[in-house]
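Hi all, a correction to my earlier message: I attached the wrong file for FAD-binding oxidoreductase. Here's the right sequence:
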Amino acid sequence: MAAAASSTNRPGALEITRRLAEICGPPFARFAGPADEVAGRTARWVAVPGGPHAAAEVLRLAAAHQLTVVPRGAGTKIDWGAAPAQVDIMLDTGRLAGIWHEPQGSPVAEIGAGTPLRAVQATLDRTGQRLPIDVPSPGATLGGVLAADEAGPLRHRHGSPCAQLVGVRYLDAEGELVSLGAAGTARLGQAGPAGGEPAGGEPAGGGAAGGGAAALFGAAQVPGLDVARLLCGSQGGLGVLVSATMRVQAVPASRVWVTRPVWTPLEVHDLVRAVLAARLDPAAVELDLPVPVPLPRRRVHPDHPSVLGRPDHPSIARRSVGPAAAGSLVVLLEGGPADVAERVERLVGLLGPEAVAGHAAPEWWGRYPFGPGETALRIEVPINDLHAAVYALRDAAGSAVPVRGSAGIGTVHAALPGSLPPDRVASIVAAVRGVLLARRGRCVVVAAPAPVRRVVDLWGDLPTLPRLRAAKEHLDPHQRLAPGRLPGGL
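and the right structure:
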């Protein structure tokens, strides 16, 4: 409890603790413990406000005492990105939860930032609706998903969760509640009651009209930078999300996954191009390239079930030029039963006799290829160059590495072992970025052990950095919100 000890020894610390308890309630304000970290940086206090008004009071208290604030949802991605320069108050959004304005058939729903995505989907499912969001982080909150700009397989058809935004309510660094609608119009509203509902039952975006958006976009000189680009991916560095109004859609009547084994990145390239050219309207096109596993050396009859169909089997050895382990290309088709059945038939015919259709996703579907302690990379590249990016990664690493993600849009994740020395990781990332530079792609270090984060440039070249800096200077000029979490040390 070193953080707690240092907090109690600071002049005025006990008064801050008392005020946090008054704002949030005694059970919901405390000194931070060892588990209250942000990318390895331990907080000093944890505050769990009961609604927008209480959250605003926490931010005003922080401003009065020149304290930094870092929001936290479920903590599923709390170790992503750079460590903040300082974490005085960790603002836990767990009580900023709930779903409002979602009558049956409504095209939108307002959702509290601290609401677990699973709970949102379960609630909407009772009315035959869903959010077209399927992020890989188990237990993630909607606010955490938006703050990290996290997306899953459905991004192929529907884009990232930020693309589903209709409006948001967020708190700025001074504790003022700002409501923004889909057109980018800002309105200043009153914080709702402690329970988290909008004041007076108004929908998000209600309240007196103000000049917030005009001031923001004018002063920050970031025309077209709407709320999604401001808050999505900002990791709490530009504002504290209170709620988001999201588009919803009817749950598809039928879902079928068509799986085809693949052996090389070049084969994936050819298959993806064929699938997209066929105009089958896939909901997702996902790739899984696992680390090769050597085949057994013992002599086994070629017709034995344990080896039948493996890449070294005589029936397919001539076609297999890749490693001795099959990857998978999986296409998800959604829609009405008759329509899906017709498209599945066409797709299986296109992919060949090795393609298999099923009503359940593969075990790896919607999961990251990396685990705790590993270095996680995100590669974004035009789909025609995805195979070149994967080959570049293999060449730089000296062997195959796990790669998984949305091959249909050229966004995949990869994992490097946590045991690699930081300098070695830096050299691999630099080599991959060199190849991607000419292909209009980029490689981002999503998460990494602390020694790697200290050595590697996590983001690489970022053309939008000047606009991001302008937005940060306008929205958080005193660097109170998650300082250092954004690119460029912002």
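Sorry for the mix-up. Confidence is low (pLDDT under 50) at residues 1-8, 183-225, 295-324.
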